[in-house]
Specification:
The active site is at residue 165. It catalyses: adenosine(2030) in 23S rRNA + S-adenosyl-L-methionine = N(6)-methyladenosine(2030) in 23S rRNA + S-adenosyl-L-homocysteine + H(+). This protein has one domain (6-284): Rossmann fold (3-Layer(aba) Sandwich). The protein is built from ten helices and ten strands. It has helices at residues 13-29, 53-58, 65-68, 76-87, 101-108, 124-132, 148-152, 173-187, 204-219, 254-270; strands at 37-40, 47-49, 97-99, 114-118, 138-141, 160-164, 192-199, 223-230, 243-249, 277-284. The protein has an eight-stranded mixed sheet with strand order 5-4-1-6-7-9-8-10, with helices on both faces. Helix 1 (13-29) crosses helix 4, helix 1 packs parallel to helix 5 and helix 1 runs antiparallel to helix 10 (254-270). The chain is globular. Bound molecules: S-adenosylmethionine. The site of S-adenosylmethionine (SAM) has 21 residues, from loops.
């Protein structure tokens, strides 16, 4: 039984980094006049009310999207992402709702782009079905998303963006991500794959990034890009999320520049202590 509910965390600093990267990748990939398939292996509920008991419990969005909401001086990519979140709200002057990855993708994809969404949670799955009900070319599946890369790649149009965004509730998720990426690249070396991960005071996330680098160096046509943002200080008990990262395989070339402009701003605006930092590295060809 899954305990994790994304509603507790919607709009936090980790969603900001993840959804900035997702939206800017989709902006770029939808410029070409050829259909695209978006695979979201861990899709969540689709959208979240920030006045719900879940979201209010910790109000994580206050230290995430809440800190960017009223800023008029953001770099272009970041401003575009914030405007998409505003467009999901009934009143752009007040932050009341936060879009999940399927909703942001729905806003950016064209009518003939396909969506394949996986969600296992018995409460979030029907919510996701409802969110996507009107959209054609969309499959919403109550199935294990780790199998999606093997099952769905390559897509008929041979253009794919895959978001892998597990909750890492179970320690084996780290290894499953690497296996899924390897299987995906074996089937389709051009897949644009976005992996989100939490920064924790433990080894698994760092080891996973090293294994993803090796997988991409070996199997991806255009290499990889890695961005991470650390906002919180380490704790004495060793618990808590210090920040998060996005590992992008076959990154669109515009991503490096967009993140070079956005990460210093995110570090400044989302910092929860003086030692906030970011990493931006790549090995592209
Ligand atoms: N991608 C979403 C977004 O950005 O809005 C958030 C996803 S949340 C971090 C992870 C989701 O994965 C949870 O809703 C959880 O129920 C679901 N989940 C956990 N294990 C799964 C699996 N093996 N396959 C599909 N979904 C899973």
């Amino acid at each position: 039984m899954l305990a994790y509910r994304h509603a507790f965390h919607a709009g936090n600093h980790a969603d900001v980094l993840k959804h900035l990267v997702l939206t800017q990748v989709l902006r770029y990939m939808t410029q070409k006049d050829k259909p695209l398939t978006l695979i979201d292996t861990h899709a969540g509920a689709g959208g979240y009310g920030l006045d719900s008991n879940h979201a209010r419990k910790h109000a994580e969005y206050d230290d995430g999207i809440g800190r960017l909401w009223s800023r008029a001086d953001l770099p272009a990519g970041l401003a575009d992402y914030v405007n998409l979140v505003k467009a999901f709200n009934p009143d752009a002057s007040r932050l009341m709702r936060y879009p999940g990855s399927p909703t942001l993708a729905k806003m950016l994809l064209r009518a003939d782009d396909r969506m394949r969404l996986y969600e296992l949670h018995s409460t979030d799955f029907p919510l996701l079905q409802e969110t996507m009900a009107e959209r054609r070319e969309t499959a919403v599946m109550n199935r294990d998303g780790f199998g999606a890369l093997k099952a769905d790649l390559p897509p008929p149009s041979r253009r794919a963006v895959v978001l892998i965004d597990p909750s890492y509730e179970i320690k084996t998720d780290y290894a499953k991500v690497v296996t899924a990426v390897r299987e995906g690249l074996e089937r389709f070396e051009d897949a644009v794959i976005l992996v989100w991960y939490p920064q924790l005071q433990r080894l698994e996330p760092r080891e996973m990034v090293n294994r993803l680098k090796a997988a991409a160096n070996q199997g991806a046509r255009r290499g990889w890009l890695h961005a991470s943002l650390t906002v919180a200080a380490p704790t004495s008990d060793g618990f808590g999320m210090l920040g998060s990262g996005m590992f992008v395989i076959n990154p669109p070339f515009v991503l490096q520049q967009m993140l070079a402009e956005s990460l210093p701003v995110l570090k400044r605006e989302l910092a929860q202590h003086d030692g906030a930092s970011f990493v931006l590295e790549h090995n592209t060809r």
